[in-house]
Write a structure and sequence with these properties.
Blueprint lengths: L4 E7 L6 H9 L6 E8 L5 H11 L3 E6 L4 H11 L4 E4 L5 E2 L3 H11 L4 E9 L8 H5 L11 H4 L8 H11 E5 H6 L9 H5 L4 E4 L20 H6 L3 E13 L16 H16 L2 H25 L4 H21 L4 H12 L1 H9 L2
Parallel strand pairs: 1-2, 1-4, 2-3, 6-9
Antiparallel strand pairs: 4-8, 5-9, 6-8, 7-9
Helix pairs in contact: 11-12, 12-13, 13-14, 14-15
């Protein structure tokens, strides 16, 4: 019998989109699912919608809890899941009907601990854009779609041909490569490595790991800990997840000091790998933090001008990168010049470099 896979859906104020998300999970070609709908104290009709679905699908379990935020809702699902594997689906997104089965097949065939895919950004409120996921899919849909292409299954069965086919559609990464690929400087698809909701995980990876309650950019604070426990991961280079871009998305709200949670997550990650003595991961984190500090400096100054201490903190992150470069030698000449120019006169940096 196929192993049980838990699907955790954190839910808050998404009654317009919730049915779309739930239906996409119920329609999965992989059917041995435990669907955990976590009603995070939603003040609208979400709780009632969840309860109605639980009455008609025995795989669905509803968790009603006081509002605690996205991380707390996901954690509630993690605490109650019983599956051997786990998937996260955000409640305003939806997944292709082959999403779980394909990620499971890829994980098993490659003896991996985590598998994940690209996502497609969608903007409409109904599922009329679902075909956009299939449009990018290499061999149709269903259980043979990716599997038939990535396994060593060619006419001549030669190793060279099999590697060529696999290389076009997926990347097999060891622990260290997964961690390095979380940074833009190392991989053009770094975002797909970071986010938590495009992945199928062995549930055991989450033992002792939970999302930080009350924080945004929670994936930045969590995924590296999962990858650190991973022996092998597989990145499938096709979109099987539909990410809904809405004006009310938490990471698209008007700039606030909460956005600096990203900087805190990077700082924690730097300290984490400093303790492990992994210099290349530390240097990547320091540079990413400096680049993020510059990115956030300008909206912080323009929209929250009274936050002088936070602007000073961001500048210190850039200074830290220049100091660390003396040891790690990880910055390019452009980085060094740009960082110094930013520290000397931010407005000129913005005009000459950020705007170039």
């Amino acid at each position: 019998m196929e192993p049980l896979i838990s699907v955790i859906v954190p839910i808050y104020k998404v009654e317009k989109y919730l049915q779309r998300a739930i239906e996409s999970i119920r329609e999965q070609t992989y059917t041995n699912l435990e669907i955990l709908l976590v009603d995070d104290g939603s003040p609208d009709l979400c709780g009632q919608i969840c309860d109605r679905y639980a009455q008609k699908d025995s795989r669905i379990k509803v968790i009603h809890k006081p509002n605690g935020g996205l991380s707390d809702a996901r954690n509630a699902g993690l605490d109650q899941m019983t599956g051997e594997y786990v998937v996260f689906v955000d409640s305003d997104d939806y997944i292709a009907d082959f999403f779980i089965e394909e990620l499971y097949q890829i994980l098993i065939r490659n003896d991996a601990d985590v598998s994940f895919c690209r996502y497609e950004v969608v903007t409409k409120e109904d599922r009329c854009e679902a075909d956009r996921l299939r449009r990018f899919y290499p061999a149709g849909s269903g259980r043979e779609a990716v599997a038939a292409n990535v396994v060593e299954k060619t006419a001549k069965g030669t190793e060279k041909t099999a590697q060529s086919v696999s290389g076009q559609l997926m990347e097999i990464c060891d622990r260290h490569r997964l961690l390095l690929n979380m940074y833009d400087r190392n991989h053009p698809d770094a975002t797909y490595f970071i986010v938590s909701w495009n992945k199928l995980y062995k549930a055991a990876l989450w033992e002792g790991i939970r999302f930080p309650k009350g924080k945004i950019h929670e994936d930045e604070a969590t995924t590296y800990k999962i990858f650190d426990k991973t022996g092998k991961g597989v990145y499938v280079k096709v979109p099987m997840y539909a990410y809904f871009s809405a004006p009310s998305s938490i990471t698209r709200d008007a700039f606030s000091l909460k956005r600096l949670d990203w900087m805190d997550a990077l700082t924690d990650r730097i300290h984490y790998f400093e303790k492990k003595g992994e210099r290349d991961l530390v240097s990547c984190g320091i540079q990413a933090r400096a680049d993020g500090a510059i990115k956030y400096y300008y909206p912080l100054k323009e929209r929250i001008p009274e936050a002088a201490d936070e602007r000073k903190r961001l500048k210190n992150y850039v200074r830290d990168a220049l100091t660390a470069d003396r040891e790690y030698h990880n910055l390019t000449s452009r980085n060094r010049i740009g960082y110094r120019l930013f520290l000397w006169t931010p407005w000129l940096y913005r005009r000459l470099i950020a705007g170039s």
